[in-house]
Amino acid sequence: MSFLAITICRRATDGLYQKSAMRERNRSGMGRTSSGTFDANVTSAYSSSGRAEAFAADVSEYPRRTRADDLQNYDNSFQRTWSSGRDQWRSSYSNHQRSRSFGQGRGTEAGYGFFVVFSFFAFFLSLWMLLGLYGNQEVEMGVFYSRVMHANSFFVKEIKVQNVRDKGPVAYSFSTRPELAPPVSDKRTQDILIDRRNHQRHIYWLNKGSHLEISCTLKDSESGTDSLIVAVVKGEDGFQEWKVDPANPDLALRWTRIRDKGSLSLTVKEDDDYSIVFGNLNNRKMTLSINLEFRHVLHSGKNADLQCSPQTDTCKFPVALGKSTYILLKSPVAIQHGVDVWKIKILYVPRWITYIFLWGLVAAGLLSTKASQLRQTRSQAPTTQEHAPLFTDDAAQHPGSSTAVPVDPFMQADDANDERANQSEHRLCTICLDAPKDSFFDPCGHRCTCYSCGMKIQGGNSNRCPMCRQTIRTVRRIYDA
Asked: Which residue stretches does the UniProt record annotate as biased composition, category Polar residues (predicted)?
């Protein structure tokens, strides 16, 4: 009796489907139009290449009623789609976490590398300060020597001046740069003999504003082809460059070639050692008469804070932290007892607290960066843990009972009531959606229907589980539903 009622309901439903489809086509005008032509939106049975293509064998004019096979196919398709989406999301999220961790790791490594480079730079800078710029110096002083020296108070604590030989030099200490004294003139004339393919060098310390005039006369020239080179170069580096190629005028501040007579002049623009060099490129000795005229710009020793003559003891000049200290070294303006060159030694006492602070800062930076790198390494482990899936397990197992959407963890607290409602729907029979799932199929064990619907499926023509399509041997009831 119940089977007959089910058959009558199915046939009535088929008739309603057919009538509804006919009315829908006549009312919507989506198929053929009244004039017998196809609507523009209707796709032709021919492909774009012009070949005729037949429809599939199961295509019908009427809509096909959903069967249990369709439910199973839909369920399998949804399972594959959901699994693929979940795997893709997990893979992309893991890649994002790895790339984020890798980026943070690279940033930490870059910071550590920066501090390593900075530590080497600070180390070599300290060596250059201690042994180079503020290392011990020996200075040779000629007449009219007037040189101002200045040291950085953050790196130098004290300046010592020692006399190496002969008396005469005087050292002064100023808190401001010493003033200039009126210019002093000096003239020197002498004859010099230069060996073949050799040179002679005369060094003078000249301050800014000093002026130099040189006049030369070549003696005992046997042929008109003999010549000498006279040049003025700045500093030791300039002299070494000139010595490599003395015939190059570009390597000297002033340069001339003398065949009989010649002269040159120079106005000094910067305090430094200046060398007057005479080069003989001939294959025989040459004699040269030179006339030098100087106008020296010297510094005055007036208003000095400290004055010391390093005759018998070492002169000590303290350098106050954060304040400027200038040391003026002066030599006599005339030859004394046949001495025209004096030699002194300058020693810089380093301010060790500055170097200790600098090295401590570098060490702290290295330790901090290394500690951050270790913390980053330890924190990478939790980032690879598996996170919650995009879809719930119940939605994956029973796609027909609810709409499968991504689960936002931040909306769970706000939608607690909706979750409880959805969970109650998941417990209902997938056939009638009314009674709870209080039965399961033997032998497959699927629990998806109520006991009544399960018995109807077992007694029907298919007698197969709607989930796995396995033959149902019996339906067993569950009393905890």
From this structure: 377-386
Burial class from Cβ neighbours inside 10 Å (0-12, 13-18, 19+) for residue 449 reads buried
- Number of residues assigned to the chain: 481
SS3 assignment, position 67: coil
Of all helices (H) and strands (E), which one includes residue 55? none
Higher-confidence residue of 461 and 33: namely 461
What angle, 0 to 180 degrees and rounded to 10, lies between the N-to-C axes of helices 352-378 and 68-127?
170
Is residue 253 within 8 Å of 267, Cβ to Cβ? Answer: no
The token pair that represents 213 in the structure block: 């005039």
Backbone φ, ψ for residue 417 (5° rounding) = -65, -40
Q: Is 132 helix (H, G, I), strand (E, B) or coil?
A: helix
Residues sharing a CB contact under 8 Å with residue 70, sequence separation 6 or more, in sequence order: none
Higher model confidence: residue 384 or residue 454? 454
**Distance (Å, whole) CA 24 – CA 351:** 99
* Dihedral over alpha carbons 405, 410, 414, 419 (to 10 degrees): 40
CA distance 154 to 341: 33
When computed from its CA atoms, the radius of gyration of the chain, rounded to whole angstroms, is 52
Least confident of 5-19, 157-171, 267-281, 409-423: 5-19
| Ordered alpha helix ranges (H), 334-438 | 352-378, 393-397, 416-426
Phi-psi region of 144 (alpha: psi -120 to 50; beta: other; left: phi over 0): left
**118: pLDDT confidence band, cut at 50, 70 and 90?**
confident
* pLDDT tens profile 255-271: 999 988 999 999 999 99
Q: Which residue has the tokens 């523009």?
A: 40
Cβ-in-10-Å burial (0-12, 13-18, 19+) of 138 comes to exposed
* Whole-angstrom distance, CA of residue 1 vs CA of residue 449: 22
**Residue ranges in 379-450 assigned as alpha helix (H):** 393-397, 416-426
Q: Are 143 and 335 in contact (CB under 8 A)?
A: yes
| Cα gap 279→256, rounded to integer Å | 11
Element (H, E) at 161: strand 156-165
Please, what is the Cα angle at 170 between 164 and 175, to 5 degrees? 120
Whether residue 58 has pLDDT greater than 50: no
Could you give the CA distance from residue 388 to residue 381 in angstroms, rounded to a whole number? 17
Query: What percentage of residues in the chain have a pLDDT greater than 70?
Result: 65
Average pLDDT score, the chain: 75
| Residues with Cβ within 8 Å of residue 392, at least 6 apart in sequence | 407
Answer whether the bond into residue 443 is a cis peptide, omega within 30°: yes
